Amino acid sequence: MFWCRFSPFPLSLSVDDSVNSTQDNTMNRRTLAIVMAAMLASPTLHAAETGSDYLGNEIVVTSSRVPQPKKELTSNVTIITKEEINESSANDLSELLAEKNLGQIQKYPGTLTSVGIRGFRTESHGNDLMGKVLVLLDGRRAGTGNLAKIMTANVERIEIIRGPAAVQYGSAAIGGVINVITAKGSGAPSASIEQKIGSNDFSMTEATIQGKSGRFDYSGSISKSDSGSYKTAKGETYQNTGYHDQKMASLNVGYEIADGQRIGMIVHSFDVDKAGSPGYFSLPDLNAYTVQNNHSVDFRYDGTTSSRTLSWMARYFTGKDEYRYVDPNWGESTNNVDQQGAQAQVSWQPGALRLTAGFDWLKYELDSTSAPTWASYENPAGFLLGKYGLFDERLILTAGVRYDDYHVDMKEGEGTSKSRDNFAHQAGVAWQATDFLKLRGSYAEGFRMPSARELAAHITSWGTTYIGNPDLKPESSETYEVGMDLTWKGLNGSLTWFSTDYKDMIQTKAIAPTTYTYINVGSSTVSGIEAELSKVFALEGSSWTLEPYAGYTYLLRYRDNQTGDDLLYTPQWNASTGLRVHDGCGFNGAFNLAYTGKTLVQNWETGFGEVVPKGGFTVVDLSVSKKFPFGGKGVKGPGITVRAEINNLFDREYQYVKGYPMPGRTFVFGLKADI
């Protein structure tokens, strides 16, 4: 009776990817509304009392740079839990966020993916300072905007700020911030090894270890994978889309030197020896490939007094991101970024007031075969964040300010040295109107500092001369949002309206027939609605639980104010919905549907960049697993887990980027041993 009532919800959703998708969009919206309404009631189910504590004691750190309950947040924050990550079929951060479908995904063959939030995207090539959505590892810059380089196997949770966070993290945090928080070891030592095989000659071996011995804790994961060229939904092989010897690793070790004081080291590593770079499907390059690496190490010290009135954090991190493109018929190019930085902050909370003051320092050095061949970025910054609680913490007021100084150097003969600075501000309010409803509102600023090329260049490339403009202002944004969060009898939800004014966009301007400079001229406006809803149900008289969920983003306005046209590569709406199932005895299942709306893109495949529509599409993924425990410790102890995944379940043809079709239906099978 139970399965008949619930399995039709996701399965009935439209999967038509027609370019003329107006009718299908209406159907998808209507069905999504039905799914959300269906979560509100069911005569045969009751809400689980063990559902996520949406407004209670769930702790987040990204918004304030210190741990705080989610009920104190004044902006829209999405949390992806460890359980959601483990149940997903995703192997890296790019695949996981494609399932969540928060905004535009730009995904190419060959481990290259950027993600968008509120009309702005990460920068997938090289320097993440050029992006407009910022990716963090444990609160510091990841050094890349390519999400395919970040593994999810050793992740505790992912916190996503939707909207600017310049006060907390500086340049590039305009559309949002994605903070990947590494797992920390706890409990008795344990380890696992897993082998996966699947379609298109996919193979992956992964090992993990975690635990705590006395004051020493550790958690780590390492994997190696290979894949051949994949077949599209039409059954045609997309040549040169495979990769060879991709290795990913993550390690978090720490030692508690005294009560409340921990020193730790976090290591992240990504290597792929050879990832195919085929170009357009209609004219594939059978020989080109990329070699990519991203490595970083982070040393950190956290401490607090016994009364918790004073807490502090200090860290130093260093890393390197390397990208090499090789075409045996043409040659090769490289783009390498060396990164190092430091953070220090102190928080004081004697009662209802909390003040956090800190200093950030960041330095990038870029080496490239294309001009500018060498550039250096240095960015010291200071910030102050405050929170005050009134009426027994039912009313929360927040504010913050940050100052960034930004200095660039370029190679002699290609440019000069220039400096700029920027102030950023934010403020917010949250009111716990009832025990289950929170109302919130906020104002926040974002910015992107001009690049070395834009500020200080004097270079000639392919017969065109580019001259930097030392008077450039940072690109900047102002965002207002209001929303509400609720939790009621296992129902968790949020609704947010936002509006962003983005100005001083940097664009090129001709000052001679073959000479260009850079000017602040463009602006755009993006506004929309974001909604999330989930509910945990328990089947009467059994250990089974089900959690249907849905997420939705609809842009009311996404316009280039200079031309009056809609922004390119920006879908009007994105949605994801699905169902997670648990039996309490080792069985887990996840069904996920992600819909991306129609977008306007440029046609470089068969044209010269003219704007054309790209139809919407739906991708459905399914994964199930069953653990067979041994040793008498239940599903949390040793055991063997069998897993099966089907990606693109309905074998639909789709592409995130015009001319680059994605794989058709694929199967993956796994066997995991926990010891």
UniProtKB/TrEMBL annotation:
GO terms (molecular function) for this protein are: siderophore uptake transmembrane transporter activity
**Occurrences of domain TonB-dependent receptor plug (ranges):** 70-177
GO terms under biological process: siderophore transmembrane transport
Where in this chain does the record put each TonB-dependent receptor-like beta-barrel domain? 212-649
Q: Which residues form the signal peptide?
A: 1-47
Look up the domain of life of the source.
Bacteria
Kindly report the protein's main subcellular placement as a broad class: membrane
Q: Where in the cell is it found?
A: Cell outer membrane
**Membrane topology, record value:** Multi-pass membrane protein
Report one GO cellular component: cell outer membrane
Similarity remark: Belongs to the TonB-dependent receptor family.
| Name of the featured protein | TonB-dependent receptor-related protein
